[in-house]
Design a protein that fits this description.
Blueprint (H helix, E strand, L loop, with lengths): L2 H29 L6 H22 L5 H15 L2 H13 L3 H35 L1
Helix pairs in contact: 1-2, 1-3, 2-3, 2-5, 4-5
Length: 133
C-alpha cells in the first residue's frame, strides 16, 4: 500500500468517524442529558469495542491492511475522543461537581476496558466459528 493510499484512507475514515461521532454524541446527549456526559461515554465505549474487535481480527489475519488503516486509524481515531472526555471531566470538577467528575472517570475507564475485552472475545468467537465451517 502506497503512502498516498494510506493518507487517503486515513482522511476518508477520519471524515466519516468525525461525522459519526458528532451524530451519535449529539443524539445520545439530547436523549440522556444528565450530570455525566453520556454522548462522549457512548462513542468511547462503542469505539473501544470496535477497535478491539478489529485488532483481534487483524492479529489473526482477517482484516486487510487497508481496512485497518481506514477503520482503526481513520474512522475510530476521529470517532473516539480522549480529549473531550478530559475537558468534560475537568469541567465537572471546576463546577464543583467532584463526585460526577470522578464517576465519569471511573465509568469511562472501566467501561472502555470492559468493552475492549468484549470486542476481543467477540472477534475470537466469531472468527473461530467461521473458520471451523
Amino acid at each position: 500500500m502506497t503512502r498516498l493510499i494510506s493518507i487517503a484512507l486515513v482522511a476518508a475514515g477520519g471524515a466519516l468517524g468525525a461525522l459519526a461521532r458528532w451524530g451519535v454524541s449529539s443524539w445520545v446527549s439530547q436523549r440522556f442529558y444528565g450530570a455525566i456526559p453520556w454522548g462522549t461515554f457512548t462513542v468511547n465505549t462503542i469505539g473501544s469495542f470496535i477497535l478491539a474487535f478489529l485488532a483481534m481480527s487483524a492479529e489473526i489475519g482477517l482484516v486487510s491492511p487497508q481496512l485497518r488503516v481506514f477503520a482503526a486509524i481513520g474512522f475510530l481515531g476521529a470517532f473516539t475522543t480522549f480529549s473531550t472526555f478530559s475537558v468534560e471531566t475537568l469541567g465537572l470538577i471546576r463546577q464543583g461537581q467532584y463526585l460526577n467528575g470522578f464517576i465519569n472517570i471511573g465509568i469511562q475507564i472501566i467501561t472502555g476496558l470492559l468493552f475492549a475485552f468484549l470486542g476481543l472475545i467477540a472477534a475470537r468467537a466469531l472468527w473461530t466459528s467461521l473458520l471451523k465451517h
